[in-house]
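Many introductory courses stop at the sequence. We go one step further.
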Amino acid sequence: MFGGLITNGVWCAFLIVRNRSAGQWIGRAPDAKESADRPPLLANYLLSALAGTAWYFQFFFYTMGESQMGKFGFSSWTLHMASIIIFGTLWGFAFKEWKDARPAVRNMVWAGVALLVGATVVIGYGNMLGA
């Protein structure tokens, strides 16, 4: 995890310097003349806190679920990661984050989601047979 922290930290620092966006953390508008363009700090900080809380609770509930899987606990991490990817992608489509992507790219993403759903079904079926 530390490697991921370093990689993300370096990349974010690079983007902040390149985009000259550090002032937005304290409420400075990207263009100092326009006060209407100021970032909504309270909303941004609250949404960041909500995201961090959701990130924490995913592991809390993951551990609760894994403990209930008995001898099939080995498949819990796979199911956890697949569900994060599936639901994150569905949210991305729901919020139109993929609207400007080429149709071939969107089709590839949908194929990946279908593959993950299929793999989840196979793992569940295998666990059912093992019971």
